[in-house]
Design a protein that fits this description.
Elements: H1 3-13, H2 19-25, H3 36-41, H4 46-57
Organism: Luteococcus japonicus
Pfam family, one: DUF3046
Protein name: DUF3046 family protein
Length: about 60
Amino acid sequence: MSETELWRRMAEHLPDGRLELWADSIVLSELGGCTVTEAIAAGLPFARIWRAVWEMLELPERYR
């Protein structure tokens, strides 16, 4: 997964105008207590970040 794909997927499931705020402020325990933005900066795999977002948002399996 690319960074572009990660952002596209998150944009599909987060309200308009909230994506950046959510990525900067929501701490995900699955990412070791990082936000999405911090996880990207730390070089975590984009697929791992998406998995954590998917779990946090409780999305259906088809979006995994």
